[in-house]
Design a protein that fits this description.
By secondary structure, the protein is of the alpha+beta class. It has helices at 42-51, 67-77, and strands at 10-18, 21-24, 27-28, 34-39, 60-66, 80-84, 90-95. It is 21% helix and 40% strand.
């Protein structure tokens, strides 16, 4: 069966390998809220990755993820999810406080 993928349902998230698994890279908003940044394109995600502070030594990469999945996992961990541009500027809140 050939299923079409709706690109607007997906975002790009930065992950880091830690302890044999991958975790989402989270940041702190100027207002003190922890959030997971996602981008509209892989290219924006790669540009953002280059601007982030160093992680805990694990390999970082940019992966596509369904927006509902990232939001569900963020809720479980107490994070907001923000759509950002390649500089990290918040464009839209997908879930959580701004």
């Amino acid at each position: 069966m050939n299923k079409k993928v709706n690109q607007t349902d997906y975002a790009w998230v930065i992950t880091e390998s830690q302890d044999g698994g991958d975790i989402f890279v989270g940041l702190s908003h100027a207002k003190g809220h922890d959030f997971i940044p996602v981008t509209r394109s892989k290219e924006e995600g790669v540009a953002l990755l280059a601007k982030l502070p160093p992680g805990r030594g694990g390999q970082r990469q940019v992966e596509a993820i369904h927006k509902s999945r990232i939001v569900a996992q963020a809720v479980q961990q107490g994070f907001a999810v923000f759509l950002v541009d390649e500089t990290g500027r918040v464009l839209e809140r997908l879930h959580g406080k701004t």
